Amino acid sequence: MLFILASLAAGLVFGLGLIVSGMSDPAKVLGFLDLAGAWDPSLALVMGGAIAVGLPAFAWAARRKTSLLGAPMQLPAARQVDRRLLGGSLLFGIGWGVAGFCPGPALVAMGMGEAGAVVFVLAMLAGMALFEGLERRRSAA
Amino acid sequence: MQPFHIDWPAFTPISALLGGLLIGLAAASFVLLNGRIAGISGVLGGLLRPRAGDIGWRAAFVAGLLLAPLLYWLLLGPLPVPHIEAGTGTLVAAGLLVGVGTRYGSGCTSGHGVCGLSRLSPRSLAATLAFMSAGFATVFVLRHLLG
């Protein structure tokens, strides 16, 4: 139960941060991605602020075997930079640039009742399901 | 096309920094309490291949994101209105690309960008550089070459 509550709280604070920072607005995100237009550097400060808090927290987490609530510390172990990582990230970046939505802000905008965000999230879930299907076929082959 | 210039009226350094600190606080508390990476595409992806005991925390995190506007409204007042310029077809195409891409690339702006860079992960740095570059290039093509 505590894990569920901690998860809910993290989602709430994360979402609050996305709204306060302006990142739940695709136009704001596209303003950052548009280097050749009038450039809005705000997103760089969002990342900077988040990483400033994240650095000490993850350094501490990396030295622990269990979380403060006693769950196993599950930090990714993969280290290789491969074609899947880069290819997938490039596809994601293209989609991000097309509409100005990445997964978190899209969910938050959906919570605001934005019809466009609902369309985006449904398509995103379909894309994720497509990936799952392709992976399952790959591992079965 | 104009030479590189900053859109000063649109630049919101204080709210960007404050929002970023909140996002960092969420990711930090999540890893310290639950031992998990607050990567939103990863959390969502796990809901699509549900395993026993692995659903509740994921659903709760997503519920938190969906309810965040309500919390904002209760604490701070009227919500900022998002400006979604893309039409339905464009949103569908973008959503599909983001869905497939984030799963193949094992993360998005939160998992690789915020958590991965905070862990000083070379893999996440490579992913972040890749999706940032692709985002810059895509907006350049759509707005300045085709637009």
What does this protein structure show overall?
The complex is a heterodimer of chains A (141) and B (147). The model of chain A has no long low-confidence stretch (mean pLDDT 96). Chain A is 72% helix and 1% strand. Chain A has 141 residues and is mostly helical. Chain A is globular. Chain B has 147 residues and is an all-alpha fold. Chain B has 6 helices and 1 strand. The chains are: A mainly alpha (141), B mainly alpha (147). At the A-B interface, helix 1, helix 2, strand 1, helix 3 and helix 4 of A face strand 1, helix 1, helix 2, helix 3 and helix 4 of B.
Features:
heterodimer, A: 141 residues, mainly alpha, 72% helix, B: 147 residues, 6 helices, DUF6691 (chain A), transmembrane helix (chain A), transmembrane (chain A), YeeE/YedE family protein (chain A), membrane (chain A)
